[in-house]
Task: inverse folding
């Protein structure tokens, strides 16, 4: 991903949240999300020295960004051999076309090249579509759970893992 991709990635992320999390997260929270605000935050990423997360994009045959994944060191586990998938979103109208599969394979290759042997990710418990996607990609729930607060509503997440 480059700074030129920020607007497209932000549109994919915001539209992806609104499509995937409707009925899971409070609707007012989703309604307040805007591509412009997300893009402002994402552009700040490019003004800092390049350490930490890696952003990958999937592009179609015309060069348009159609998917985005973000990965980096695993947070909060105390292990240096695990990488974490922080986000993976595909343009909602293209879900099921193989873009997500290509992105997750690129994520795995990037993590392996970085010396990691394990990939972890958190998924909203109520997001059964994403859970099935990750399970088909070889991930399994490992029993770890947490919850994030969205507009005063506690939303549970579960952790998945996969050996690389």
Result:
């Amino acid at each position: 991903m480059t700074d030129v991709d920020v607007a497209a990635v932000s549109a994919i992320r915001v539209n992806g949240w609104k499509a995937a999390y409707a009925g899971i997260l409070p609707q007012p929270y989703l309604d307040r999300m805007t591509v412009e605000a997300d893009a402002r935050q994402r552009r700040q990423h490019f003004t800092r020295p390049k350490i930490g997360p890696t952003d990958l994009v999937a592009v179609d045959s015309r060069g348009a960004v159609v998917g985005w994944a973000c990965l980096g060191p695993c947070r909060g586990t105390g292990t240096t051999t695990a990488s974490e998938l922080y986000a993976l979103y595909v343009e909602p109208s293209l879900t099921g076309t193989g873009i997500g599969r290509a992105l997750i394979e690129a994520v795995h290759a990037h993590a392996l090249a970085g010396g990691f042997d394990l990939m972890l990710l958190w998924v909203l418990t109520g997001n059964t579509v994403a859970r099935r996607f990750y399970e088909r990609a070889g991930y399994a729930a490992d029993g770890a759970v947490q919850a994030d607060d969205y507009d005063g509503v506690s939303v549970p997440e579960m952790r998945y893992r996969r050996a690389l």
